[in-house]
Amino acid sequence: MIKNRERDGKKMKNKRGFTLVELLAVIVILGIILLIAVPKITSTISNATEASMISSAKMLAASAEREYTVRQTLSNATAITCADVATLSANDYDLTGTNCTITFDGSGVATVKLIGKTGGKFAGKYICTATRLTATVQTTACA
Predict the structure, then answer these.
(1) What is the pTM of this model?
(2) What is the pLDDT along the chain (143 residues), one digit of tens a residue?
(3) What span, in angstroms and rounded, lies between the C-alpha atoms of 135 and 91?
(4) 45 part of a folded domain
(5) How far, in Å, are 3, 6, 41, 95 from residue 88 at the CA level?
(6) Could you list the residue range(s) of the whole structural domain that residue 50 is in?
(7) β-bridge partners, 15
(8) In a domain, 106, yes or no
(9) For the chain, how many structural domains are there in total?
(10) Which helix (H) or strand (E) segment is 122 a member of?
């Protein structure tokens, strides 16, 4: 920082300010911080989105298995849909048609295939397949 300078042999009054070099150094440091932070933040958001979808799919699978057990007990084990077993955010999920399907193996273990709704936070980019114990997420944008 410059406090006093001489110009043409005369002393200038207390001019305060930052030099161009100091300002450029600050800008370079901020640029380096952004180069490090932005990819990390983007990665964290993507991981959180996938974790949210996995959680929803596992919850749907567990609920479907409970519903399957109840309907079998009542001798009414008809097709179970995602809308039968859960209510998820209408902004992010479409639980109708092929966007959310539930299938059962011979022992009643449910497998849920959940596709993110276009226009929601998943924007159709994620397809999650899950049972109540395991889940996989496919990012269709990368496939």
Answers:
(1) 0.63
(2) 455 555 555 665 666 788 999 999 999 999 999 999 998 998 888 788 778 888 888 888 888 888 888 877 665 556 777 777 777 777 677 777 777 888 888 777 888 888 777 667 766 567 778 877 777 777 654 32
(3) 22
(4) yes
(5) 63, 71, 26, 8
(6) 6-139
(7) none
(8) yes
(9) 1
(10) none
